[in-house]
Amino acid sequence: DAGITQSPRHKVTETGTPVTLRCHQTENHRYMYWYRQDPGHGLRLIHYSYGVKDTDKGEVSDGYSVSRSKTEDFLLTLESATSSQTSVYFCAISEPDRASSGANVLTFGAGSRLTVL
Amino acid sequence: KQEVTQIPAALSVPEGENLVLNCSFTDSAIYNLQWFRQDPGKGLTSLLLIQSSQREQTSGRLNASLDKSSGRSTLYIAASQPGDSATYLCAALSNDYKLSFGAGTTVTVRA
């Protein structure tokens, strides 16, 4: 399994401050994703990346930006945090499924809990 | 836009009973469908993946079926145990490589 590390795991910040969440993978998987999870909404895609410097928007990208300058790191930035961005953020990578030849599965990090006061 | 629905939102069963979890999706043009387990405060763990060309996939007590034409997938868990208590999520991977999640079914298995 690809080692996926998210940092920080917990953060409390104030409205209007910038916040950056980091996702680090130990293997050279091409696709990386950022999701947020909120009660009643499930997981929603914020941004994803299909290679170094190649990123695209998901369904809830407003207020977020991403960067991928190295294969192993995918950064999510909230330029000016708002209370509506209080959530649990999950990073995921797409890697080959050992049980299904030719298929890829999403493997998730442990999550970063962000509270914006 | 792909919409994924899981009903019911919560389920409580006695130990030993078989579990049936439902997942429906609106766009049948999917690449695959994946089932996940999430324990409280934790990340998601992949359980099973069914490719669009498959009808079902099995792993131990878990069996997942896929009917693309009707936009449905079902996760069966045989002989449930208290350790199976968790939230189960399904996710459909569209052909544009975006994954759409259901909101999940929270399962409680009573000892």
Roughly what is the average pLDDT of chain A, rounded to an integer? Answer: 91
The succession of helices and strands of chain B, N to C, reads EEEEEEEEEEE
Helix-strand topology string of chain A: EEEEEEEEEEE
Total number of helices of chain A: 0
CA-atom Rg of chain B in angstroms = 13 Å
Sketch the major β-sheet of chain A.
Answer: 7 strands, mixed
In DSSP terms (H or I, runs of 4 or more residues), the helix count of chain B works out at 0
Strand content bin of chain B: over 45%
Q: Give the averaged pLDDT of chain B, no decimals.
A: 93
Please state the overall shape of chain A, judged from the principal axes of the Cα atoms. globular
Q: How many runs of DSSP E, i.e. beta strands of chain B?
A: 11
Sheet-strand content of chain A, in percent, reads: over 45%
Largest sheet of chain B: 6 strands, mixed
Radius of gyration from the alpha-carbon trace of chain A, in angstroms: 14 Å
Q: Calculate the terminal CA-CA distance of chain A, rounded to whole Å.
A: 36 Å
Number of DSSP E strands of chain A = 11
What share of the residues of chain B lie within helices?
A: under 10%
Report low-confidence residues of chain B grouped into runs of 5 or more. Answer: none
Structural class of chain B: mainly beta
What does this structure look like?
Chain A contains no helices and 11 strands. Chain A is mainly beta. In chain A, a hairpin with a 7-residue loop joins strand 9 and strand 10 (104-108). Chain B is an all-beta fold. In chain B, strands 2, 4, 5, 9, 10 and 11 form a 6-stranded mixed beta sheet that branches. In chain B, strands 1-3-8-7-6 form a 5-stranded antiparallel beta sheet, with no helix packed on it. In chain B, a hairpin with a 2-residue loop joins strand 6 and strand 7. Chain A binds chain B through residues 31, 33, 35, 40-45, 48, 50, 58-59, 90, 92, 94, 97, 99-100, 102-111, and chain B through 1, 4, 32, 34, 36, 42-46, 48-49, 51, 54, 57, 59, 89, 91, 97-104.
